[in-house]
Amino acid sequence: MKSDPLDDLLEATRLLWSGSPELAGFVSWPDDLRRREVAANPIPACKLVAGWRDNLDPKTAQLHRCAVAASELANWQQTYTEAELGRSFLDRYGYFELIGQTGHFHSATCNAYIGYWAEHLHYPWHYHVAEELYFVLTGQARFESEGDPPAILTPNQARFHKSNQPHAMTTGDQPILTLILWRGAELDGFSRLSG
Ligand code: ZN
Fold this sequence. Notes:
6-stranded antiparallel beta sheet; 5-stranded antiparallel beta sheet; alpha+beta; binds zinc ion; 6 helices; about 200 residues
């Protein structure tokens, strides 16, 4: 049987999620998943992820490799416009909804995204209603959130954002690939830039 890269990615996500107290403690693996037909949207970040094969962490390598393999089938998205963040930012960032109401696998219980930011990017302060957990798969970044001390996160480390808590992220010499979970209200909502 020919394996399907998006099914493989879902299974690798399930394995990491089930084995991680941070992920499983944030929200349970959804029990209402069903595959949706969602078109590929190969924005520039798609190729950057598709070519990322080095400096993998042993615990997250399987999920990373599955994200690489699924990259060109993924429905890549960007929340922001060129006027807000500039063309060079948009050429080097993107995410796709693996699980959620508009994702490759429908669930009404939570959202799960694969998110990518290239090196030397500043993702400015933003907020959203849903509660959020970032989980680093590969690379690293500096995370800031209002009321919390900033921290540099590396693979297998997580960071929680409360509902409407402003937060920002900055990459250094390395890009970052993350698994991002949303729970709570307004799972169909979007991030807005602060100020
Ligand atoms: Zn966020």
